[in-house]
Design a protein that fits this description.
Rossmann fold; seven-stranded mixed sheet; 15 helices; binds NADPH dihydro-nicotinamide-adenine-dinucleotide phosphate; binds 2-oxoglutaric acid; 45% helix; alpha/beta; 17% strand; single chain
């Protein structure tokens, strides 16, 4: 690795039609995924048949889930599970509960899971699930009934050797416990390895809760080393203070980074001297919001992500960095904790600004990597210490960062396209090896 590496990144597109995209096209996650896939496949000179196979998901399941609500009414929720690929192993990926879920979003998230698992070289394909609902407005009883019914509808499609769900936005360890229990009732035996991200007491892995944030902290360390930048004085802004954002902030704070900004859906905080993350976490637990915390100044959340910092970590949702605000970013490194936070148009603007991007399918792969460890431990019935889990995670994340950056240099592409190319090449190889032409 070069100590004098430049931050300059080649642009994503060589075509100009990007400039004529409407904002609606620009922010469709499936279009964004497909655009980058096509570009990487072209650079790989991918076999046209394999191209067609990998471009689209293998299976898309839509379910309508009737749920008895607490007030006695019946509501019907729409849910999806999309399995993009099982070429390298069982499909793997989280389940999202959000009012914004759509089939195109779940398709994109499922494809990103395939590429992500291949980037970190773990033996899974990709899948994702989602239910259109607002979990913040539902009681625990309503969420449990919806989750159990959703699981029952998917019963023949999921399983330890078929498709292994995990948490994502709006879902957590409790949701995974309900899925595991519902699946086990149908199988007439306890099957812990059907989901990951469960509570440790029922087969979860130590370290899974923090794993995505931990992986982010590891790739930030690698990026600083690569760019010859010190941790001391490294200012970080984090968007999102849920599972991913809060754990990334906590671990980076422990490593000596200065977290100067945190945003959530309903507010944002700034402190040029650094926010005390443990105190903010206690406040967030008590108050249910970051608002009202005395250790930072309340600021506008959209403006905060454009403030000067060394590292910006979007860890909330898709399409937060678009043609509308990319030119205003003043970070040196963009580390994508969320899936799909940057649009393809924004990619080119960031490249022109020389921002070093650690793409989502690498940066947030710590979660699925520790999910892999959980699946392995459940199948062995033997559980590792937290240190063993974290050490293995650190090793994989560091090596994957090095692989992507080396690939980018070797092929003169930016980090995102390098990660796609590396992943597509690996998935194409197993797809051919398994003999789809038979
Ligand atoms: N959980 C995991 O292991 C993994 C998650 N990811 C990705 O990371 C992202 C976050 O997931 P996760 O942390 O699990 O989700 P959570 O539901 O735990 O948290 C989401 C956070 O994002 C905030 N948020 C939502 N919309 C906005 C917005 N427009 N501006 C600012 N903040 C916002 C929410 O704020 P509020 O509470 O105020 O609504 C909340 O703090 C998603 O893209 C997910 O796909 C990727 C890999 C693994
Ligand atoms: O842990 C997992 O299996 C998947 C987590 C996830 O949904 C993601 O990485 O986007």
């Amino acid at each position: 690795m070069s100590a004098t590496a430049s931050t300059a990144q080649p642009t994503t597109s060589e075509q100009k039609p990007l400039q004529t995209m409407t904002l609606e096209q620009e922010t469709n996650p499936w279009e964004a995924q497909a655009f980058r896939f096509d570009l990487a496949a072209k650079k790989l000179n991918l076999d046209p048949g394999i191209w067609k196979v990998l471009r689209y998901p293998q299976r898309e399941i839509i379910v309508h889930i009737p749920v008895a609500m607490d007030d006695g009414s019946i509501e019907v929720f729409t849910g999806y599970r999309v399995q993009h690929s099982i070429s390298r192993g069982p499909a793997k990926g989280g389940i999202r509960y959000s009012p914004d879920v759509s089939l195109d979003e779940v398709r994109a998230l499922a494809s990103w899971m395939t590429w992500k698992c291949a980037v970190v070289n773990i033996p899974f394909g990709g899948a994702k699930g989602g239910v259109i609902c607002d979990p913040k407005k539902m009681s625990q009883g309503e969420l449990e009934r919806m989750t159990r019914r959703y699981t029952a509808e998917l019963i023949e499609f999921i399983g330890p050797e078929k498709d292994v769900p995990a948490p994502d936005m709006g879902t957590d360890e409790q949701t995974m416990a309900w899925i595991m229990d519902t699946y086990s009732m149908h199988m007439r035996q306890t099957v812990t390895s059907v989901v990951t991200g469960k509570p440790v007491s029922i087969g979860g892995s130590r370290g899974r809760r923090e794993a995505t944030g931990r992986g982010i902290s590891v790739v930030c360390d690698s990026a600083l080393k690569y760019l010859n930048m010190p941790v001391e004085g490294c200012r970080v802004i984090v968007q999102g203070f849920g599972n991913v954002g809060s754990n990334a902030a906590k671990l980076l704070h422990e490593k000596g980074y200065t977290i100067i900004g945190i945003t959530e859906f309903d507010g944002a905080l700034y402190n040029a001297n650094g926010i005390d993350i443990p105190s903010l976490t206690s406040h967030r637990k008590r108050a249910g919001t970051i608002n009202g915390f005395s250790g930072g100044e309340a600021v506008d959340k959209d403006e905060l992500i454009t403030r000067e910092c060394e590292i910006l970590i979007p860890a909330a949702t898709e399409n937060v960095i678009t043609s509308k605000n990319a030119a205003q970013l003043k970070c040196r490194i963009l580390c994508e904790g969320a899936n799909g936070p940057t649009t393809v148009v924004a990619d080119d603007i960031l490249a022109e600004k020389g921002i070093f991007v650690i793409p989502d399918i690498l940066a947030n792969a710590g979660g699925v990597t520790t999910s892999y460890f959980e699946w392995v431990q459940d199948r062995m019935g033997y559980f590792w210490t937290e240190k063993e889990v974290n050490d293995r995670l650190d090793t994989i994340m560091t090596a994957s960062f090095d692989d992507v950056v080396a690939y980018a240099t070797a092929h003169s592409v930016n980090n995102r396209i390098a990660a796609y190319m590396l992943a597509i090449d690996r998935v194409a190889y197993t797809t051919k090896q398994r003999g789809i032409y038979a």
